[in-house]
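Second opinion, please. Pick holes in both lines of this record:
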Amino acid sequence: MWYVLKLQNEEVHAPLGSSLSWSTCTMNSPEACWDVDDLPQMDGTCDACEPDEALPATQLCALCRFAFCSDHAEKHTFSTRHQLQPYSSTDQPPEPAQRVNGCGQAEVAENGLEVAEAAGGEGREPAEEDQQSAAETGKRDTVTVERLRCQEHRQEGSLYCKQDQKIVCVVCAVQGEHREHEIITLREAYMWQKSKEGIDLLACTQEMSEKIQTKWTSPDMSPDELERYVNQQFDELHRLVRLEEWRVLHLVDLKEAFLTAQAAEKIAEISVHTERLQEEMDSITQQLGELDQAERNGVAPAALAPLLAAQPQPPRAPPEPRARMDPEARPRIVGNRGPGRIHQLRS
């Protein structure tokens, strides 16, 4: 169901139940703003007809972002003086440049200029800018390995430069810009950064509030001076927040880095052990095949002789101890009663 509203002697067609900000929108202005969620989706039918009896759309109003049939297009043009264009199923509502989040083009340009001027007026040191850019969560890569990879040498970051507080690769530590710096392992870097005391943002906020309250009640403080002082305090608070954010995110990177390195080392060890076991299995399989072939042939081939010789043999029984003889003893022949026969040999 659609309704028609009179706004400054102009008719505006809109869906029943939709909410429009009439205080900031006029249908004659190219910067007219509508809530995108309240706008109907173009399905090829007239947006002004009854839903059950909607006719095919033939015209499109780029300002209102509505599609109309011939009859409603004529009424809309007469009431709003908007320029319509032929409707096509491939047409999409105009985006962007004219409206951004309910703001007109002029307002967006003005806001962008103010933001650019504010950003350009702040003087930051390079190190602080690097920390701030690294602390922006929206720009962080979700893939740990790629995020921690050295951008200069494309090597995995496996070491840490304590002077620059940066994860570096082996090439950087040996022959790169960090070759003369103190280099430690990732685990040592994590424990070192974790031992540092973080910034107490709550205490800083309370202290800033007390300072502002003191300046506020001071009779010697002019409004302009008070405004500058408040801006300075909030700028300092923002700087502390960015530093603390960078510290926490840097700890996360360090922990991910050394855990990833440990996992990679374990995987390498498992791979080497697996390859060794695979080689042993292949050798055993080959030997079993040769034994089966020899058993079917009934003759052990010469190639199996080393294998059979290498098989463990059952332990042999130890030899019986022999009686020790006295080397100084002289054998003595004892004769029997019968002539010419030796009966016993005694010592």
